[in-house]
Amino acid sequence: MKKRKTRKTMTVVIVVLRLGHRIMRDKRITTHVALSARALGASGIIMSGEKDDEVLESVNDVAERWGGDFFCEHRRDWKKVIEEYREKGFVIAHLTFYGIPVQEKVGEIRGKNALVIVGGEKVPRDVYDLADHNISVTNQPHSEVSALAIFLHECFEGRELSNEFQNARLRIIPQERGKKVIGKEKG
Amino acid sequence: MKKRKTRKTMTVVIVVLRLGHRIMRDKRITTHVALSARALGASGIIMSGEKDDEVLESVNDVAERWGGDFFCEHRRDWKKVIEEYREKGFVIAHLTFYGIPVQEKVGEIRGKNALVIVGGEKVPRDVYDLADHNISVTNQPHSEVSALAIFLHECFEGRELSNEFQNARLRIIPQERGKKVIGKEKG
Fold first, then answer.
1. Which B residues 52-71 touch A at CB under 8 Å?
2. Are A21 and A53 in contact (CB under 8 A)?
């Protein structure tokens, strides 16, 4: 697992599969999903649905400037992605507000490599059947962004908040008031 | 605190203040912020910036159908909102990726009533000074939606995931596969 090399606190690989992206409607939400995935310890995101070069570029650009080796790519055939990750021994977890509460399920996933499926507006019925676990973060309507955030936080038990991102060009020095960024935009 | 009556697991009131909403750009993100706030145990959200009736209606509509007594309102003068909540004894916490990591700060907030400020694209410098705490959820760029989610989850220590929403017209029965909703859309 190449993650182990650069992100020492993580020994588990979690990859996000974002389904059904629509260029016209989902640009910002998908970007938030991707950046949250990266910030909260996932190793990469695979986007399905419409191929959106703008989102891919902006996420890869953040990853390059802020360090780590998060990957972001588009794949047309999401079923094949699921198959491939299953073959690699990953648990397939689907986040849906119809599923079993994360607090009851996370124990079965924690410590294992996982592919986490995050749906868009309409999730094909197949996804529920292909997943090993259909998991809810509350059974209330809210956001795939916060559902993913809580899921990752539960999987990593909060350790993800202290991740170091290697080879960053930009870095924040936490402040009680105001802003402090070190580094430079262009290398 | 009227929350105590209807949402028994919560004894603490957290209200979200969303700054700088722009109708053209932020509709979906602000909606996700508001719904995440509700789902994860906040008592209400106050939106500042441009008044967006569509967002207000859609959030209030969810709250009505899915239960609980979450409030969602627009206020033009966000400084006055901060003053009012400070007078009521609320801690003022501002989520910003320049701030002190949540895992170091949450102990000072947990168990207290809090106004949580979630910025938009450009946060006025005043906010950093008016807040009692400037708090980061990782010092990486990601999403106000996931930052708020993790913050609430840390404040409520995961108990928010088991909240019951009273007087709901619609309710999910968690399923291993597929979807089960009970209740009816119109009362």
1. 62, 66
2. no
Residues 148..187 of B with a Cβ closer than 8 Å to A: which? 148-150, 153, 158, 160-163, 165, 171-172, 174-181
Mean pLDDT of chain B: 93
Residue in chain B lying closest to A39 (CA): B140
B91-101 and A170-172 beta bridge pairing: unpaired
Report CA Rg, chain A. 16
C-alpha radius of gyration, chain B, whole number: 16
Q: Do A178 and B128 touch (CB under 8 A)?
A: yes
Domains of chain B (ranges; CATH) run 12-183 (3.40.1280.10)
Identify all chain A residues contacting B142, using CB atoms and an 8 Å cutoff: 32, 35-36, 38-40
What are the Cα distances from residue B145, in Å, to A144, A145, B36, B67, B99?
A: 9, 6, 7, 21, 16
**CA–CA gap between residue B93 and residue B131 (Å, rounded):** 6
* ipTM of this predicted structure: 0.93
Q: Indicate yes or no: pTM above 0.90.
A: yes
Which of B154, B166, B182 has the alpha carbon at shortest distance from B40?
A: B154
The pLDDT tens digits of the residues spanning B96-118 come to 999 999 999 999 999 999 999 99
Helix and strand totals (H; E) in chain B: 7, 8
Q: Give me the pLDDT at residue A115, please.
A: 98
CB contact under 8 A, B138 and A175: no
Question: Strand order of the sheet with strand B71-74?
Answer: B71-74, B44-49, B14-21, B114-118, B91-101, B133-136
Q: How confident is the model at residue A127 (pLDDT cuts 50, 70, 90)?
A: very high
